[in-house]
Amino acid sequence: MRFVVALVAVTATFAAPAAPPGDGADAARAKAIIDKMEDLYRGAASKAQVTMRIETPQYQRTLEMSARSLGTKQSFIRILAPIKDRGIATLKIDKQMWNYFPKINKVIKIPPSMMMGSWMGSDFTNDDLVKETTLTDEYRLHMDETADQYRITLIPKQNTVTVWGKIEYVISKSPLLPVSEGFYDDAGKLVRRLTFEDPKDFSGRLLPSVLEMVPLNKPGHRTLVTYTRLEFNPPDVTEADFTLRHLTSRF
Amino acid sequence: MSLLLRLAFRNILRQRRRSILTALSMIGGYILCAFSFSLVDGSYGNIIRIFTQDRTGHVEIHKGDYIEHPRIYKTIDDRAKVTKVLDADPHVVSYAPRVYAPALAWAGDKNTPVQIIGIDPARERNTSLLARKLTEGSWLTAATAPDGHYHALIGRGVADALKLKPGGHIILISQGADGSVANDIYVVQGIVGTLDSAEKLNVYLPLAAAQSFLTLGNHVHEYAIILNNIHLARSQAAKLQKLLPGLTVSPWQDVEPTFYKTMESDKRGNDVTLGIILFIVFIGVLNTVLMSVLERTREFGVLRAIGSRPITIALLISAETLILAALSIAAGFVLSVPLIAFFTWHGIAMPQPIDLGGVAFSDMQGDFTASVFVRPALILLGYALLVSIPPGIRAARISPAHAMRTF
């Protein structure tokens, strides 16, 4: 879930340390912008209180959860409500993911084949949670600029195995914040769109507080993630929070 | 007209030996036909009875196109209305609500895909044969076990794959109707069926447990209904459909179209074989009638000469054949009744019982219904009429002058 690490993960998309230079001056500028955004979030530990509303033609469901992250590689989510799902937790370390179900006291590792599967019935996939940091390795960057926005297009490099045919990323210039991300399939069709809305001040930082994911191939479906609280570098987020032991602990 | 019949009768009796021989072939045809219909109807009736009781019931109610495209959220929501309609219907003997969902089952470090079926234990016992297939443990109870978990019945395949015995714990993971991850632990109460039966990978939960597991509220996916007469399935389904707009009421034929169509085509094949056998029988009959016409050329010439119309002569020939056929049918009926009665009420044991969906099917049985006797009779009369037409035309065309010169 891109929402987990707040915007950390989202923008860190472009922030892989080993990101090779793109092609041309535009790409270099794109990288510069991304570096700037990355500086905003790099190394941040975060702790968030999140509401996720899942809407489909058949049902609506609202989850309350707490999420914490350390760097871009470690994140941990625990569902607090509804009561039926309370305690279900997800741990992500680098590219590995585990779900824990307290009712059956079982940790289930998400296999690679399930990475494109939905996370807890939402429109976010498991892959959304783990994939971000490798994007710059696998995509070429191309930037267009308008008066108030940067539009960065990511096209997969040859010989890489990617999920999307193209990603279109829009960033506003002032304030420097993500606006939307469009995901295209191999046929060049827009299949889903992630929109960042309602910027709010969280512990002194202005960040979009609402993320809306709309899968365009599934009419009537959307997932809305709202941050009710977001803290950066809280002292109680430590490495110990991102272990299988903590995943299965009582809380 | 009565003269015609009297003449026809006399003509039959005139050549007794030939009439008897012709009648014998028709009697044979009738018995063969009736016996075959009886066995086909009987064994298929049996298979259908077991099949419908085992799986579908005689009539099923679903939401929308659940049969073709089952989705967890296609549920029957107004259960009170459905039960009210079913309770009021005199033809409905019993009915059972069910919910379905695929799931992953775990026990220890083993797992297997399963099909969850939520059932009402008391109603299911009266509606399907599931309770009779219990091989270990006891029948499902709706109440929770002492440790707070609900009970479950598992198919033999699940038991083998997970090495489970009654009393063991089974973990189920699935997706709820609200998109949530359904997960819970159940206590195995019993094991049903064999490794070959259709329910080998099923896990049966009490309805309320399954509903809460899948976040279905009080909704169900299906009502399976048993009628007091299986032949009413189609008409009853149509009647219930009118009372339950918004839901889909299907007779078992529509629930299991593949099974039904395979069976129907097999029946058709049998009908064709019988048709060919009867055709051969009636070629013999045709020969006899033609012979008798030829033999009586002079007689017909005289009839024409004294003023009989050609149509009367043709009718006379048809009447003779039909009367002979009717007598054969009567004799055939008398002979086939005990035979078919024996097969219907006694049956013959098959050397190897056939396992049909976990229910042993050991006797080959007949069916003793009016249809078994009436259908061959109608077929015989039809054929008799058909084969009497060419000789009739031939006889009607006889010119008196020419005919009276032949001997």
Q: How large is the radius of gyration of chain B?
A: 31 Å
Give the overall pLDDT of chain A as a whole number. 79
- Could you tell me the number of beta strands of chain A? 13
H/E series of chain A, N to C?
A: HHEEEEEEHHEEEEEEEH
Average pLDDT of chain B, to the nearest integer?
A: 88
Strand order of the largest sheet of chain A: 6-5-4-3-2-1-13-12-11-10-9-8-7
What is the rounded Rg of chain A?
A: 18 Å
Can you list the strand order of the major beta sheet of chain B? 2-3-8-5-7-6
Beta-strand content bin of chain B: 15-25%
Give the overall form of chain B: elongated
| Structural class based on helices, strands and sheet pairing of chain B | alpha+beta
* Share of helix of chain B, binned: 40-55%
Low-confidence stretches of chain B: none
Largest interface: A-B, 18 and 15 residues
What's the count of strands of chain B?
12
What's the order of the H and E elements of chain B? HHEHEEHEEHEEEHEHEHHHHEEHH
Please describe the biggest sheet of chain B, giving its number of strands, its sense, and whether it closes into a barrel: 6 strands, mixed, barrel
Choose one word for the global shape of chain A: globular
Spans of at least 5 consecutive residues with low confidence of chain A: 5-22
The termini of chain B sit apart by: 28 Å
